[in-house]
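May I ask for whichever protein you like with its backbone structure tokens?
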Amino acid sequence: MVLCSPWSSPNCACEVPSPDPQASGPRGVRPLSRPRPSTKSGRPARKKLLRLPLLGWREWVALPELGVAHIKAKLDTGARTSSLHVSHLKRFRRGHRQMVSFVLHPIQRCSLSTIQTEAEVLEERPVRSSNGEVAMRPVIETTMQVLGTSCLIEVTLASRDQMGFRMLLGRSALRRRFDVSTGRSFLSKDPGPSRRRVKKTKVKTKTSAKPKTKTKTKTKTKTEARPKSEAKRKP
């Protein structure tokens, strides 16, 4: 029971029923919020954040469905979608499915090792490149393996021969899966493909032999030795 006004006497006959604490609306009284659990210091306890696996700004990843065991990828949080460098891109249909065949170059700055494969196209998506040009690119779905975990990602196929890296990982592939350290690289401890460095050998070219010129040698003429008897003679 609540009195009609705070200035009324306690013996006032007019009484108003108290509002229901569980009622909602402007006339009802909202229930008190539950206090947050506090720590020993008295401060409210914070929620524990999940620790995600840490990756560097460049890593070795694997694409098993495309037959790629190692490919160097750059982690770019400024890009939304991931991109993969391919060549000889051809679209075709297999029944009711839209397919695409292409050639992969997994090793950076090396056109000798190639992998020819095909995949199903999810959609054609407009993508803006770093030059500001918008082009329609086919999007495929494939499995990526890194740090012993595998996840399904969407990748656009394009010619990235002018770029330094064969693969680019965007935000859609990293969100809620990995944390990125911009100052470190190759945290997955994957040695990558074993490539022997071929030492460059300098080939000496034979120059045309110049004809030898005869040098004039000075010949010393022997002077006739005077007899000793003449040398001792006094003038």
